[in-house]
Amino acid sequence: MKRLFFISLLAVLCQGVTAQFYTTENRPAAIRFFNRPTERREIVLPTIDGYTLYKADFHTHTIYSDGDVTPRQRVREAWYDGLDILAITDHLEIRTYEKFMLKVLAPYNTTDEPFKYEHAGIANKKDNNYPVMANLNAAYDEAVYYAERENLPIMLVRGTEIWRNTKSIGEYNALFLNDINAICHPDIFESFRRVKEQGGLIMHNHPGYTRTTSEIAEGEQARAYSEGWIDGVEAINSTSLYKGIISRCLDRGLFMMANTDAHGPTSHDWPATGEFFRTMTFIMAKSCTEKDIKEALKAGRTIGYMANNLFGDERYLSAFINEAVTCRIVSRNDKGDVTYSLTNSCSVPFTLCRGTSIHRLKPFTTLKITISKGAEPKFKVDNMWHRDEQHPTVIIAVDKKK
Ligand SMILES: [Zn+2]
Question: What is the 99 CA–ligand 1 centroid distance (Å)?
Fold first, then answer.
């Protein structure tokens, strides 16, 4: 007995010792999980009206403003997370790490001119000729460089976040720019004008941030809308849904978006092996080119995605589920009740509700549902959201082919 105890103790100790010496070959999956993924997650989506759904994140930050990761890491994670389009949108005005970088670089300065540690921000500058101390295109240029060098085929959009008084005017992402430096101006409306001059689009970011409501604020923000500067609104930022924005976008002909606004690594908030993906926007476009993506945005062809919930125009949501799910009649019983099979061929699950019954149709699975005589396969889809944050009720068309 004593001997058995000793052997057991030895076994436990040995396990403990060997566990500290895993090599790259023998380390268990639990440890490999923490390393950079080797495969891209593929997000399978239906096509709608002949359009492909491209997966995009139009709001992320890097160390070039107040983010915690490099542009290189943003590109890598976007590709591994299954995105087709990424915009790095570092702040024009908030460049937290810049002064630290300048301090580090100061001893390398060989000129007589001292490095300035002054914040490059422009929010509080009164003159029109404030200096742009850094090259604000640097993060985008670096992202393009590493995407090419590491063979990560992803469309990169040059953008920036314009951040002024969060309560009176709010925050805006300028997207599809040619030169971020050129849009700097203390007057935000002059910045807007320069964005449009470059053919860029303007998105109103997280409309309820630091406010008690996501309604349009009186004054400068109302002016930005009424003068037509705004092309779209971010209804979903990270894991927050801003009330009333889907309706605002539909009523005003603006595109609606869902983005991460990631500052840290996306794997912190959206683990790569989880059952859902990072927050993103699905864009219905003919191809993944700047021209076609901009055309799709101007036409408002987007669906927001957050934690396996879909947000947008009821028409698109209904089309999405009808294209993703194949519905067939399996059998009829003596009473005339019909059993349907519903096959989900996409990466997004659907929560289908009929009265008190709830059916969860997981990705790439088939579910059988019996519906009483005379009724249609009609469901309230609880993980879809349209106007006024309501769930649409959709009829899933029966596939007549079989
Ligand atoms: Zn942001």
Answer: 19
pLDDT at 343: 97
pLDDT at site 270: 79
Interatomic CA distance for residues 61 and 287, integer angstroms: 26
Residue-level pLDDT at 400: 64
Cα of 60 from ligand 1 centre, angstroms: 6
Cβ-Cβ contacts under 8 Å for 171 (sequence gap 6 or more): 161, 162, 163, 164, 204, 205, 206, 209
Per domain, the residue ranges of the chain are 37-312, 325-395
Q: What pLDDT was estimated at residue 389?
A: 83
Neighbours of ion ligand 1 (CB under 5 A): 161, 261
- If one counts every other C-beta atom within 10 angstroms of the C-beta of residue 24, the result is 8
Distance 94 CA to ligand 1 centre (A): 10
Backbone angles phi, psi at 37, to 5 degrees: -65, 150
Give residue 83 CA to ligand 1 midpoint distance, Å: 18
CATH of domain 37-312: 3.20.20.140
- Residues of the chain predicted below pLDDT 50: 1, 4, 6-7, 9-22, 31-34, 119-121, 123-131, 402
Distance from Cα 162 to the centre of ligand 1, integer Å: 9
Q: How far is the CA of 59 from the centre of ligand 1 (A)?
A: 6
Question: Can you give the pLDDT at residue 304?
Answer: 97
User: In this structure, are strands 85-88 and 155-163 parallel, antiparallel, or unpaired?
Assistant: parallel
Tokens standing for 251? 């009523």
